[in-house]
Amino acid sequence: MDIKKRIEELRTQIEYHNNRYYNEDNPEITDYEYDMLMQELKKLEQEYPAYVVENSPTKKVGGEAKRQAGVLVRHNVPMLSLQDVFSKEEVLKFVEEMREQLEDPEFVVEYKIDGLSMSLRYESGELKLAETRGDGINFGEDVTENAKVIKDVKKKLKDTPEYLEVRGEVYMKNEDFEAVNAMQELLGKKPFANPRNCAAGTLRQLDPSITRERKLSMFIFNIQQTRGIAFETHTQGYEFLKKQKIPVIDDYRICKTAEEVWAAIEDISKNRGNLPYDIDGAVVKINRYSDREQLGATSKVPRWAVAYKYPPEEKESVLKEIELSVGRTGRITPTAIFEPVRLCGTSVSRATLHNQDFIDELDIGIGDTITVYKSGEIIPKVKEVKKEKRPEGWVKFQIPEFCPACGEKTVRDPDTADTKCVNANCPAQLERHVINFVGRDAMDIKGFGTVYIEELVRMGYIKNAADIYTLKEHRETLIEEGIIGKVKNTDKLLDAIEQSKKNDAYKLLTGLGIPNVGKAAARAIMRKMKNFETLMAASMEELQEVDDIGEVSANCIHQFFSKEENQVLMERFRQSGLNMECLEQAGEDQRFQGLTFVITGTLPEMERKEAAALIERFGGKVTGSVSKKTSYLLAGEHAGSKLTKAQSLGIPVLSEEELLQMTK
């Protein structure tokens, strides 16, 4: 293994995931997976000190302080992270080291709440400032107005010390999180992945009324600094805070020995599923403040505490049924339906089983007891079957030979593990074809929701995508039956359908759902072919002359237009008045022809989609990941790992202003 290369890879990965977690409140991997990356990097840096650099993520605390959420403020006391440990041996080693360095130390074992760190500053008993962790060392964000609407945050203390600064964790109780997500769905907005993400995003809202509505909670877990009052121990400080009606960590335990410490950690683990909020570990702290002062801290962590991180949460459940759904391409996907379990703050009862090969590998059937976990703390997955708990009369599940939607015989794709329905008139496939056709990247018919599509297909109004443009002929009946709504809603949708006829031809090509032809490919094809008449007559060789269209994509396009039913479909589109010509003036100014751009971070003025459209207008291509083939990286604030990778590859980095200069 190339050690230097592996260290650089780990640093890039960790920086990327740090940005996702701290700055975007949208992690992609579990805490455990992140911790394993960090542990590997720490180990390699210890073994190969020549490769250690000052800006390594092992030397940093937290994320960036973001100006969007509030004014930046300087920390009075650094908000350091904790040293993570992952085994009983590491916990016992910490305890023994403390006993060697200190005289008869006391340990406090308490919950590690999964939320967002915040400190509160009180002057003469009044709350003056609330700040987030930010970079952990120098700056955090001022979130005082949002903190004041959190019920657990006291605006005024009963006692009035000259100065008191406390640090705690802002979190969401599970029931409050579920209420927020229920409202998100009601409003047609994307639900939050887990309570931690929701709490972090809510605390950084610019509108305190939203923070109030979402009912954040807070526990205090440390006294940072005092004047005019003093405490000998951590738990003594807790008792003072309780008298002020300030919530502190629940059920903390004072321990003397390593065995007592480990027993407390195990008890917390056993009770984890009964708590009304999420925890991801247990914290072991030295109780006496004089001992803490003696031990001090490194640049990143205090020496007087460790955080024991529990392994990824898994739960057992019973498989009740396996639901089969048919996708737009005819692919049949089996989904496990099991008794609801709580994982990472949400109730889950469904997980994909992918295909028959996956089912065979798991050896799974109805009634099995299964182990379920969340990949990236977001996507529910089935890990294994507890075969020793298998019921009598068990039968392994087999995807049937007939389509669950239309009853036609299915086939096994020889090149994949997929089982497919090949009936072109299958209603399930039709629904998904139409959903794709009216979607934002295709014909972008606003207001044409899934519920309307399902009902119109079920009642026979839509038998293929071209029927969308004949719905106006059924206006009176549609209003009478209330399928779309009353007069106003029906006319609004029919008008949106009519307006979509003016779309550029590449949107129609995207909407056809031809395999391997997405939005970018459709745009490039129509710029080259100019119109559908030329495209439908194009040979395989002519299709492959289009940039990034290879043999596979060309073959998919050629096969699609060679079928008689698709030729009829295109003729119906033409007769309905859809634009069949490329509207983009691709030939006039192609200054970015042959250049590939990647966009990352938050741009000052433009949305990313606007920037991408601008680049494509001048013939450039926009992709999602940085590689040696990338020509430019367009970077805004909080660019993260893409910027790091671009710099390491020597790829030019542009600001929004520089891009605009290039297009003048």
Describe the structure.
The protein is of the alpha+beta class and 664 residues long. The chain contains 24 helices and 22 strands. α1 packs antiparallel against α2, α1 packs antiparallel against α23 and α16 packs across α17. The longest helix has 21 residues. It is globular and about 90 Å long.
Short description:
The protein contains 24 helices and 22 strands. The strands form 6 sheets. The protein has a 5-stranded mixed β-sheet with strand order 2-11-10-3-9, with helices on both faces. Strands 14-13-12-15-16 form a 5-stranded antiparallel β-sheet.
Strand % is 15-25%
Structural class: alpha+beta
List the uncertain runs.
Answer: 65-69
The DSSP helix count reads 24
Largest sheet: 5 strands, mixed
Cα shape: globular
Write the layout of secondary structure elements.
Elements: H1 3-23, H2 31-47, E1 72-74, E2 83-85, H3 88-101, E3 107-113, E4 116-123, E5 126-132, E6 139-141, H4 144-147, E7 163-171, H5 174-186, H6 195-203, H7 208-213, E8 217-227, H8 234-243, E9 253-255, H9 258-271, E10 279-286, H10 289-295, E11 305-309, E12 314-326, E13 332-343, E14 346-352, H11 356-362, E15 369-375, E16 379-385, E17 410-412, E18 419-421, H12 427-438, H13 450-458, H14 475-481, H15 487-500, H16 505-511, H17 519-529, H18 532-537, H19 540-543, H20 551-562, H21 564-575, E19 596-600, H22 608-617, E20 621-623, E21 632-635, H23 641-649, E22 653-654, H24 656-662
Parallel strand pairs: 2-11, 19-20, 19-21, 21-22
Antiparallel strand pairs: 1-6, 3-9, 3-10, 4-5, 4-7, 7-8, 10-11, 12-13, 12-15, 13-14, 15-16, 17-18
Helix pairs in contact: 1-2, 1-23, 3-9, 12-13, 16-17
